[in-house]
Amino acid sequence: MRHPLRPATRIGRIMIALAVTAAMPTALAAAPAAAAERTAPYLNPRLPVDDRVDDLLGRMTLAEKVGQMAQAERGAVAGDPEMIGRLGLGSVLSGGGSTPADNTPEGWADMVDGFQAEALGTRLKIPLLYGVDSVHGHNNLVGATVFPHNIGLGAARDPRLVRRAAEITAEETRATGPQWTFAPCVCVSRDVRWGRTYESFGEDPRLVTGMTTAVEGLQGRRPSRDLDDPEHVLATVKHFAGDGDTKFGSSTTGTYTIDQGVTITDRRSFWRTNLVPYVRAIKKYDVGSVMPSFSSVDWTEDGVGNPLKMHAHEELLTGVLKGRMDFEGFVISDWEAIKQIPGDYPTQVRTSVNAGVDMFMEPYSAPQFVETLIAEVEAGRVPMSRIDDAVGRILTAKFELGLFERPYTDRSNASEIGSREHRAVAREAVAKSQVLLKNDDRALPLDRRDDIYVAGVNADDIGNQAGGWTVTWQGQSGDIVPGTTILDGIERYAGDVTYSADASASMDGADVGVVVIGETPYAEGVGDVGNGHTLNLSAADRANVEKVCAAIDTCVVLDVAGRPQIVTGLLPKMDAFVMSWLPGSEGIGVADVLFGRRPFTGRLPVSWPRSEAQEPINIGDRDYDPLFRYGHGLRTRGHHH
Predict the structure, then answer these.
(1) Domain Glycoside hydrolase family 3 C-terminal spans what residues (predicted)?
(2) Whole-model pTM above 0.85?
(3) What is the pLDDT of residues 115-137, one digit of tens each?
C-alpha cells in the first residue's frame, strides 16, 4: 500500500542531513556535486519508496514541482520535444487517435523513449510518465488485440475473464512504451441514451464493482511490487463520480445532451449508486490514479440549482476520495476539464488544485498551466503543502513503476502483441458476452449444414464491431484493424453462405437468414441520443429485417451496438434475437455461440427499453416494465455437428 507523505518526518530528515553535513571534514564536504547526486537517497532502489519521495521532494524547486503536475499531449511536444525539459513535465499523453506516424510497436516505443530522453536530461533526472487510453485493449495501436467494450464484458459476468483481458491489455501497452492507462471506467450507466454507455459494465453498482478486477489485471496483484514488471501498467478508475447518472438535457457542452451533464441526487444515493465501485478499486486493488468526471453534482439536500463541477469539488475529491476512501494514489484531470470551471484561468487552476486534483491534463496549454500555478503559489493562494502532497503522490507512482531504474521501454513482450494466445482470450470474451434474448423453436444454435443467408453492413465491418476508441477517438467504419468480422466467423463454420449487405441478392434455397443490425462508431457525448443519434434502428436495418424474416423460414437477428436499440415492433418477426454489443477484433467469437461451439451464457447488464421515451429505466424502479429485464439471457447448450 502507498503511504501518505509525512511532511514533519521529511523536515526532520532534512534537518538531520544538514547537521551531518555541517560536521563533515572540509575535504569530504567539497566532493564533486555529481558524486553527491549519484549517491542521492532518491536514486537508491534499496530504500523504501516513502524515503525516496521525501528525499527527492526536499531537493526540488517550486518550478520543478509544478512541472511534475503538468501533462501535455504528444502532439504539442512532438514539434518541440525540448518543452519536456524546459517545463520539467511530469507526463505526456496520447489522446484518442494520437499516434506516432509509424503506428507500430517499435514506432510507439521509439516515440516514448525519445520523450523520456528529454526528461532524463533535466537536473534531477525525474522520468516521464506516459499515459494512453487503453480502454478495450491497446486500442490506439493497429495490430493490438481489441477486446469487447466494457458493456459486453459486463454481460459476460466473468470477473476472472475481465482480469485476464486487462492483463493482456497491460502487457501489450507497456511493451510499446506507455506505462499508464486511463482505464477502467467504473461508471454506472443509468440511462442508455448516454453516448458512453458502452464504456460502462452496466447499470447495477454491484455488477460494476465486481468487474474492478480489471484494476488488478492492469497493475498486478501487489502494485507496490508488481508495477515495475514489464507486463503491468498504472490503472485509472474513472470518471469520479456520477458520470453515468446525469440527467438527460442537463449537459451544457456543445450539442451534448447527457454526457458531461449534472447528477441530481442526495449524498446517500450518490454513494450507493455511483461511489461504491471506487471503494473496491481503492481498498482491495490499490488503484494508482483516479480521473474526475466532466460532469457536475447537484445535491438535493440544499435544493436543486447549484451544481458543482467535479474538478472543483473539494468535498468529493479531498473529503471523500482522499479522506473517507483513503485513496493514496494521484488524481489526474480529464482533457482540459478545468476550463469548464467558472472564472478566469488562474481561478480555474487554483480552484482545482485546492479541490484535490494532482496532475493536470492540459494537452496544449501546459506552459500556461505551469506559469499560472507557480504564480498562484507565490501569491499564497495555493498552499505549498498542497503542492507537496500532489507531487509526492505522482513521484510515488513513478518509483513504484520502476521508472528511475528502468526509464526506457522494455520491448521484450512486443512479439506477444496481437498474438494467437491473446486473440483467443478476446474470442472467449466475445462468446461469453453474447446475450440470447429470444430463441423460438430452438432457432439457435445453427446447423453447419444449413444454407445460410447473411444480410446487413455490420456483418462484415470490423470498424463497426469495434466501435469508438479504436485507432481513433470516435472510431470509424471499415477495415481499420486486423481480426475477423462476424461474417468471417460464419463462413468458417458453414460451407454454404450467401452475403448481401442490403439483402438484394436472391434468398432462394436459404435455410436460415442472419441479419446483422446496429450502430456505427461514436464516442462520448458525440454519441448522445438527441445529438444526431437515436435508439431507433436505421431505415436500412429495419428493411433488412423485414425482408429477410418474411422470406426465410428461420430468421436470426444480431445487434452490433454499444447499447440497446428499440426493436419492440420488429421482435415478433424474428425467431431469434442476439445482442452482440461491440465485440472488437474477434468477430469469430460471435459465430462460436451461433453454431454451438460455445453455449450462450451472457446476461443483460442493462435494462432493455420498449421505447426511447422509457429511458431512464433501471432495475429497482417502481414501475419497472422493460422489454427485457436486467439480467435476462437465455441459455443454450454447446454442440457440434
Answers:
(1) 435-634
(2) yes
(3) 999 999 999 999 999 999 999 99
pLDDT (average), residues 219-245: 96
Q: Phi, psi (5° rounding) for residue 639?
A: -155, 165
DSSP 392: H
Per-residue pLDDT for 519 more than 60? Answer: yes
Task: Give me the catalytic one of 524, 559, 575, 615.
Answer: 524
**How many other CB atoms are found less than 10 A from the CB of residue 208?**
29
CA angle, residues 598, 563, 94, in degrees to nearest 5 = 95
Q: Is 284 helix (H, G, I), strand (E, B) or coil?
A: coil
At position 595, the amino acid (one-letter code) is F
Angle at 181 between CA 176 and CA 184, to 5 degrees: 135
Q: Is 160 helix (H, G, I), strand (E, B) or coil?
A: helix
Q: Residue 270 is which amino acid?
A: F
Closest by CA position to 142, among listed 588, 590, 587, 585: 585
Catalytic residue, chosen from 171, 328, 334, 541, is: 334
Any catalytic annotation for residue 524? yes
Distance (Å, whole) CA 458 – CA 561: 9
Residues paired with residue 516 on neighbouring β-strands, in sequence order: 558
DSSP string, 21-57: HHHS-HHHHTS-HHHHHHT-GGG-TTS-HHHHHHHHH
The number of residues making up the chain comes to 641
Question: What residues contact residue 487 under an 8 Å CB cut-off, 6+ apart?
Answer: 454, 459, 460, 497, 499, 587
The answer to whether the beta carbons of residues 182 and 363 sit under 8 Å apart is no
